[in-house]
Amino acid sequence: MEITIHLKDLIYVGSHLLGVVISAVLFYVGFRKYRPNIFLALSFFTLTYGTFIAWLVSSGNFVHFPALYRTGNIGGLLFPAFFYLYIRNVLYPNSNSNRDILVFLPVMLFLADYSHVIFGMTVAEKKELIIQEVYDPQLFVAYNQSLVLPNNFHTLFRTFVILVFLLLSVRLLVQRYYQKEVPAFERPWLNWMSIYLIF
Questions:
Q1: Does 153 have pLDDT greater than 80?
Q2: SS (H, E, C) the chain
């Protein structure tokens, strides 16, 4: 089976490469100058990874990357958490605490429930499952190999997690907007964050 690339696939792959470059630049700036950018870099990277997996599913090319089977949800669960931590660290620089580990509970739940697939299956076994599911995206994203939780739980749960972190991020921005004094240099950043969250 050959890898098939169309114009829309080139656009997707180009956007994924751009996402990796942006992540790398943000990591560099984060480590050298501004620590909160590390969270933004992690958010962009995990979002890029999740959309790369989504492209592999929609294009039918996942069969060429069987080792990545069922790992896209990891990116989908992590990117909103990292973005929330980024916003919070910019607005409240000394707000980190041990409780921040809670943002990783959703991905830990997924890894525990899918450990037998992600870590326990051979590449050949994963490829067999991909071949059975890849041409039916609805079946592919139903997450039917769960150890404990019901079918399709992880798809709905991911949406719920994204919404929770979106609301937490919006709450932080709204609180900052309504504070008595917002420095003029901070207004463009708040506007950019609002536009990003809308998208």
A1: yes
A2: CCCCCCHHHHHHHHHHHHHHHHHHHHHHHHHHCCCHHHHHHHHHHHHHHHHHHHHHHHHCHHHHCHHHCCCHHHHHHHHHHHHHHHHHHHHCCCCCCHHHHHHHHHHHHHHHHHHHHHCCCCHHHHHHHHHHHCCCHHHHCCCCCCCCCCCCHHHHHHHHHHHHHHHHHHHHHHHHHCCCCCCHHHHHHHHHHHHHHHC
